[in-house]
TrEMBL record:
Name listed for the protein in its UniProt record: Uncharacterized protein
Origin species: Streptomyces hygroscopicus
């Protein structure tokens, strides 16, 4: 116990997530990677492939929703929403195609 009345942080005997033996530092809830082994930290970061797959899935769902809209009966709010959603999805897909800074293409 510290002078302020809070419990003193005790280093965990291993990774706070997978319990891999070793000393990975104190677990601080304000710091997402604290107390975790390098493998758990790396697994928590999405890869570019994973992000690309997610963007393509969302764009496909957005396009399918826009295609299913009946233009004859759609309200102006529905049309504006669908058009905005398609625009955001298209922008996300175009960002995937843009060259990544630092990569020689």
């Amino acid at each position: 116990m510290t002078a302020t009345g809070h419990a003193a942080a005790v280093p965990a005997p291993g990774c706070a997530l997978c319990a891999t033996p070793g000393s990975f530092g104190h677990r601080d809830l304000a710091e997402p990677g604290s107390g975790l082994c390098p493998a758990c930290i790396a697994a928590g970061k999405p890869t570019r492939e994973g992000l690309e797959r997610a963007v393509v899935i969302v764009a496909g769902q957005t396009l399918a929703g826009a295609e299913s809209l009946d233009l004859a009966t759609a309200t102006p709010e529905e049309l504006a929403y669908r058009l905005g959603a398609v625009k955001r999805s298209l922008r996300s897909v175009l960002h995937l195609l843009a060259p990544v800074e630092g990569e020689g293409r």
